[in-house]
Amino acid sequence: MFSLNRTETFSQDIKKSCFRATAAAVADEAEVRAFLTAQSEPSANHNCWAWRIGQAFRFSDDGEPSGTAGRPILQAIDGQELDRVAVVVTRWFGGILLGSGGLVRAYGGAAAACLSQAEKTAIVPSVAVRIACVFSDLARVKARLLALPDVTAEGETFTETGAELSFRLPAEQAERILRTVADMTSGRARVSI
Description:
Blueprint: E1 2-4, E2 8-14, E3 17-25, H1 29-39, E4 46-53, E5 56-60, H2 70-79, E6 85-92, H3 99-117, E7 120-122, E8 126-134, H4 135-146, E9 152-158, E10 162-170, H5 174-184, E11 190-192
Antiparallel strand pairs: 1-7, 2-3, 3-6, 4-5, 4-6, 8-10, 8-11, 9-10
Protein name: IMPACT family protein
GO molecular function, one term: guanyl ribonucleotide binding
Pfam families: DUF1949, Impact_N
C-alpha cells in the first residue's frame, strides 16, 4: 500500500465541462472532513469525492446520477493501491450531457490521472517500542537504530542511569532489530512494546 507525499491536482475539459481533481494524504476522518470542506468549490455544479483509510471508506456523487462519480473515484484510489487518501473531483458543467458511462469515465479518469502523477510513499506497518538503556549504551543504540531504513525516533527521556528511547520499527523486522539491541548491550537494555 502507498500514500501521497503532498497534495496533487489535475484538471481536464471533457465536452465543455471542466473537471478538477485534488488528492491528498489524510490520517483520520477529521482530516478528511477538513480536506473536503477546503476543496469543495461552491461555484461548481458538483463536488464529488471518495476516501479510504484502512478498511474505512466513503464516497459521494453530490447530485450526479448514483454510482457515476464517487464510486469511480474510490476505484481509482483502490486501483493504485493507495491508503490514507482522499480525492475530490469538482465539475463545472459545460452544457453537454455526458451520460452515465461518460460520467464514470470522466470522474474516474480525472481521479486516476491525478493520483498517477502524484509522488507516493510506501506505507510500512510499524510497531512502537520503548528501549531503556544505560548511558554507556545510549549513543551506540541510537546510532544503530537510526541507521536502519523505516526506523523513526519518537522521543527520548533521560533517567538517573540512562535514557528511555521511543522508536517506531518496521513490524516485519521488529523482532530481529530488538535482538540486535539486546546483543549489542549484552542484555542490559530493557524493551517494552
